[in-house]
Amino acid sequence: MEEGRALMSFAALSQETRLHIVRMLVVAGPDGMAAGAVAEKAGVSPSNVSFHLKELERAGLINQQRESRSIIYTANYEGLGALIRFLMEDCCAGHPEICAPAAEVAACCAPSPEESLQ
Amino acid sequence: MEEGRALMSFAALSQETRLHIVRMLVVAGPDGMAAGAVAEKAGVSPSNVSFHLKELERAGLINQQRESRSIIYTANYEGLGALIRFLMEDCCAGHPEICAPAAEVAACCAPSPEESLQ
DNA sequence: TCCATATTTCTACAATCCTTGAAATGTTGA
DNA sequence: TCAACATTTCAAGGATTGTAGAAATATGGA
User: Which residue of chain B has the CA closest to A5?
Assistant: First the structure.
């Protein structure tokens, strides 16, 4: 991930409403949510949610696609993963002191491929 | 990590000079760097570097300590690690699609305790 | 075609952030 | 005590960002 994109991503996540939106969309999964639903759940006006959604998309953290009258937004897993990786290897230079705690999280949320059944 | 601190951390990292400073301090390791050295290496004025260092400290990403006339800044490994963890578990809800790539990085930069010799 | 729905774009304004240079603070050694 | 050094604080200005509401765009159905 290039630095410019990382800077945009950090800026995108540094705003409360936008951080909430990302969380909501991650939880919503591949089905995503329509802009209106996001606005309602986040408690902001349609025009305001549109402003923030655009910012998040510009940063590569969410995706959009039209579905009839609605526009459906989904979390961009690739973008979010790339940002975490940037933070670990580019920014923190892979320092074990920093990355070790993250490794624990990774270990418990990402079961190894062959035993991902339970 | 509470949300407010995460927001501050993201804001802190969303500025080019500050991102560079964090990188420099991570690389510098436990010895850290004096404010003046940071300013010179980052190519900004003393007062400007002071402004950014304060912001980074407020966010909990760096530490400071006076050493004679100089003030030595060091990366705050705990703070940086906590931010990565926040991004993985709180923000991204531990989604394997997002965290798996991070797990690879973690695996290669954090050797298991009993074989950290080579 | 016309209307209702869903969303975005535009405009204006307030708030925050970044930069700059000057002045202030704290530290050391003569 | 005084001068030099390292850094921070302050004040001012310009730039960027966030918010609100009105107007515009796109879609689908009567």
Answer: B14
Chain A residues 7 to 26 whose Cβ lies within 7 Å of strand D are 11, 14-15, 17
Q: What is the pLDDT of residues A73-84, one digit of tens each?
A: 999 999 999 999
Please tell me the distance from the alpha carbon of residue A105 to that of residue A85, in angstroms, as a whole number.
14
pLDDT tens digits for range A12-69: 999 999 999 999 999 999 999 999 999 999 999 999 999 999 999 999 999 999 999 9
Q: What is the assigned CATH class of domain B3-77?
A: mainly alpha
Which residues is A33 bridged to in the sheet?
Answer: A73
pLDDT, residue B107, reads 76
Could you check: is the Cβ of residue B48 within 7 Å of any atom of nucleic acid strand C? yes
User: From the Cβ of B112, is strand C under 7 Å away?
Assistant: no
What kind of fold does domain A1-118 have according to CATH? Answer: Arc Repressor Mutant, subunit A (1.10.10)
| A112 burial via Cβ count (<10 Å: 0-12, 13-18, 19+) | exposed
Q: Taking a C-beta distance cutoff of 8 angstroms, is the pair A117, B102 a contact?
A: no
d(CA B35, CA A78): 37
